[in-house]
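SEQUENCE-TO-STRUCTURE ENTRY
===========================
Question of interest: how does this chain fold, as expressed in backbone structure tokens?
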Amino acid sequence: MGTARNATKSKELSPSDHLALIDGDIGQFNTAQKVAELAINKFGSIDAVVANAGIFVVKPFTDYTTEDFHALISTNLAGFIHITQLAVKQMQAQKTGGSVVTITAALADNPIAGVTASLSMITKGGLETVTRHLAMEYAKQHIRFNAVAPGAVDTPLHANDSKESLTAQSPMATISTVEDIASAVVYLTEAHQITGEVLHVDGGAHLGKW
């Protein structure tokens, strides 16, 4: 299953026997309902969720608007809550365990001077906290919760940022690829003895000052 505001218009993904796409705003509960219902009807079960919908707004704290706040809460937090609640209920009914991996950010607990993303990090930090709490809550049912915390990633989000500014955000002076993040997600999805972990894929940025 894949969902985004324009998922069906994607040039990289096409519907198939193994993939269904749904257009919609994951911050809206009805979108999450459509995703869950189609997943069950098409594939018969929900075994894993990757909660990777997110927006990132960088500006000085005093410049954030009410609109910024509501947009961040809707996509980053409400989106996670809606789809995860429905998925967990289905996993409980299946009684075969399951996996939920969410995407947070290395910045959530490791600020970098000059990267002013405080309001965005309220939501990402919240995701890290809820990951640990849900891991404990559902451990006996073998429903695992983990998170991947990327640093700078080579995506269109950073199209206007210089390579030097991005490599300066980690002691390894490297930029992660989308494949790096995907590999971490797959690992956590398949690692049946890992739950409640936040895996940093950030070139060591979480280690602190360098």
Remarks:
- Helices lie at 29-43, 66-94, 118-137, 163-167, 178-190.
- The chain has two domains: 1-44, 45-207.
